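Anyone up for a design puzzle?
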């Protein structure tokens, strides 16, 4: 049997089994859940932590303070340079940490990174967002 005839016979048999109806073919696949992947990395990549945060339709994901983090991001209108501060005293030791955000927020792609002199400075500048 020719390859074309074999393919046609296979399609006809699938159609007769009800495997693919026009209504099913028109239904789009469910959209994948999107969100933000947040990472914190120690000096010279000696350690790394990461967590997924979803803010829509409501706060979810394994972030331990998802509601507070989503609220902070919403107040900053998705601009991670404008996150609400949580000012508190920090030592001046230099043990740099870098943070990175990738993903999407309210349908817009997000890519942001910044290095802080230490974990306390990160916490004071970003509040709940990187507390994981």
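Challenge accepted. My sequence:
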């Amino acid at each position: 049997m020719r390859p074309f005839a074999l393919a046609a016979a296979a399609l006809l048999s699938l159609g007769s089994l009800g495997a693919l109806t026009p209504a099913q073919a028109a239904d789009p696949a469910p959209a994948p859940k999107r969100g933000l992947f947040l990472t914190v990395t120690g000096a010279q990549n000696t350690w790394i932590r990461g967590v997924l945060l979803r803010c829509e339709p409501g706060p979810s994901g394994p972030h331990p303070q998802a509601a507070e983090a989503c609220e902070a991001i919403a107040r900053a209108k998705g601009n991670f340079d404008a996150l609400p501060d949580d000012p508190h005293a920090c030592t001046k030791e230099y043990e740099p940490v870098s943070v990175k955000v990738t993903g999407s927020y309210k349908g817009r792609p997000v890519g942001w990174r910044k290095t802080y002199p230490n974990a306390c400075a990160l916490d004071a500048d970003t509040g709940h967002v990187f507390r994981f």
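A detail worth pointing out: The chain has one domain: 29-130.
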